[in-house]
Design a protein that fits this description.
One of its GO terms (molecular function) is succinate-semialdehyde dehydrogenase (NAD+) activity. Residues 21-481 form the Aldehyde dehydrogenase domain. The chain is globular, with a radius of gyration of 23 Å. It has helices at 49-68, 71-87, 89-100, 104-125, 163-175, 188-201, 216-225, 238-249, 273-285, 305-317, 337-352, 384-387, 403-411, 426-435, 468-473; strands at residues 15-17, 20-22, 29-33, 40-45, 131-134, 141-148, 151-155, 178-182, 208-210, 229-235, 254-258, 263-267, 295-301, 356-359, 374-379, 394-400, 415-416, 418-422, 440-443, 458-459, 462-463, 476-483. Helix 14 (426-435) links the parallel strand 18 and strand 19. The chain is α/β, with parallel strands linked by helices. The relative contact order is 0.14. Helices cover 39% and strands 22% of the residues. It contains 15 helices and 22 strands. The protein binds adenosine-5'-diphosphate. Adenosine-5'-diphosphate (ADP) binds next to helix 7 and helix 8.
């Protein structure tokens, strides 16, 4: 096989339902490809509604016992999960790079990041505190309890195959929920490996189920219509998020939606330009620009526009493009042909509307889905790449005159996930932080993701928070008990 791991058991080609590794009912499979060369890596079961229903039933049956454990007992399993992920970090990273394409160094960081959610939420599970509220009339006291919402369905994307799942699983399992998840069909092996480790960590059968298949709509339909599911948590596109929300309306399921973004990255005249360039590279080019918090539009103030552009081009020029498994790569391939076509279309549209190419702007000589890291100057709000997520290694620089214009440009989008800005002016730092319409702000930093902070968006980037104590609360219901007769 093409994938050699030191623990070959972590590479599963079956789905996980009720503690059993299984095939699809009719035995159908779908192939998983390495985006670096397009070759087949292996297969996973091609499941649909029937298998999903069984997985949900298993999660439903496992719920009372899992919810009934003490927080400490659940935390012990999650802690073992964390330890196992770090112990097998290299295998997990190789598996991820093989199916997703990102450079190994990024895959290793992602495994540590994904694992951190199990550690954090295990610890926080012990702090699922309620309250005692003084009574409103004589002889009454008021209690609040936090209880797990129940069976959770989780649908995750291909860009962070391990971390997007870790965030959801860590919180849900810590709270006492049981889970059925559906990883993206491009990257199912990372999820299945977590299933294997969860089993080794001592997670009881049925508490975590993993369904794979290419008919996402059929699996999603079962998840959203099955009354045993009490919450849907989704990370992916805004279009699919809206559809899932509509499907959940009938049953009023709880929802967490982490959807697309269109992050502004503002560089003010008073910024530390070298720091801003480093932040822009980290934010824009991580995972070849395929992250939902990627800087999508670089807004640069007049006075430093040329200086910033020159420094940025010099830094982007040093990025090495190549297969993720090679240690000499900073930029892997895009996930598939569709992603490549979108990047090409955005660049062509920008050039047609007057943008100037400073670097890149075409497919990479390596072929396949590799694209050259690209910098475009004099981009404007009317260009597609200023309006939609490009999800590729393209940095368009827009120009602005003053703070007011920067804020107006930054907020001129239906999305509101992340926003970044660089300034050394304290008052401006406050003003702009408060004015940006987004769920997360990077002030003088391009990297904002951590398990201890609440990750999530506003506007059409969705709602709900992942990470932090807020992330745990999103998997709980508040019950209030009115205690009378005292
Ligand atoms: P991306 O552009 O990142 O592929 P998607 O929103 O299409 O964004 O995919 C994110 C996840 O949503 C994937 O796991 C995908 O299989 C799943 N998905 C896509 N369409 C549907 C659907 N109609 N119902 C449920 N899940 C879906």
């Amino acid at each position: 096989t093409r994938l050699s791991l030191s623990d070959p058991d972590l590479w599963r080609q079956q789905a996980l339902i009720d503690g059993r590794w299984c095939a699809a009912d009719g035995g159908a499979t779908c192939a998983v490809h390495d985006p670096a060369d397009g070759l087949a890596l292996g297969t996973v079961p091609d499941m649909g509604a029937a298998e999903t229903r069984r997985a949900i039933a298993a999660a439903h049956a496992a719920f009372p016992a899992w919810a009934g454990k003490t927080a400490k007992q659940r935390a012990q399993v999650l802690r073992r999960m964390f330890d196992l992920m770090l112990e097998h970090r290299e295998d997990l990273a190789r598996l991820m790079t093989a199916e997703q394409g990102k450079p190994l160094a990024e895959a290793r960081s992602e495994i540590a990041y994904a694992a951190s959610y199990f550690e954090w939420f295990g610890e926080q599970a012990k702090r699922m505190d309620g309250e005692v509220i003084p009574g409103h009339v004589d002889g009454v006291r008021i209690l609040t309890l936090r209880q797990p919402v129940g069976v959770v369905a989780a649908i995750t994307p291909w860009n962070f195959p391990s971390a997007m799942l870790g965030r959801k699983l860590g919180a849900a399992l810590a709270a006492g929920c049981t889970v059925v998840c559906k990883p993206a069909i491009q990257t199912p092996f990372s999820a299945l490996a977590l299933g294997m480790l969860a089993e080794r960590a001592g997670l009881p059968p049925g508490v975590l189920n993993i369904v794979t298949g290419q008919d996402a709509a059929a699996i999603g339909q079962e998840m959203t219509s099955n009354p045993q599911v009490r919450k849907l948590t989704f990370t992916g596109s805004t279009a699919v998020g809206k559809r899932l929300m509509a499907q959940c309306a009938d049953d009023l399921k709880r929802l967490s939606l982490e959807l697309g973004g269109n992050a502004p990255f503002i560089v003010f005249d008073d910024a530390d330009l070298d720091a801003a360039v480093a932040g822009a590279i980290a934010s824009k080019f991580r995972n070849s620009g395929q992250t939902c918090v990627c800087a999508n539009r670089l807004l640069v103030q007049d006075g430093i526009y040329d200086a910033f552009a020159e420094k940025l081009v010099a830094a982007v020029r040093t990025l090495r493009v190549g297969p993720g498994l090679s240690d000499a790569s900073d930029q892997g391939p895009l996930i598939d042909a569709k992603a490549l076509e979108k990047v090409e279309a955005h660049v062509a549209d920008a050039l047609a509307k007057g943008a100037r190419l400073a670097l890149g702007g075409r497919r990479h000589a390596l072929g396949g889905t590799f694209y050259e890291p690209t910098v475009l100057l004099e981009a404007t709000p009317s260009m597609r790449l200023a309006q939609e997520e490009t999800f590729g290694p393209v940095a368009p620089l827009l120009r602005f005159r003053d703070e007011q214009e920067a804020i107006a440009l930054a907020n001129a989008t239906a999305f509101g996930l992340a926003g970044y800005f660089y300034t050394r002016d304290l008052a401006r730092a406050w003003r702009v932080s408060e004015a940006l319409q987004c769920g997360m702000v990077g002030l003088n930093t391009g990297l904002i993701s951590t398990e201890v902070a609440p990750f999530g968006g506003i506007k059409q980037s969705g709602f709900g928070r992942e990470g932090s104590q807020h992330g745990l609360h999103d998997y709980t219901e508040i019950k209030y008990v009115c205690v009378g007769g005292l």
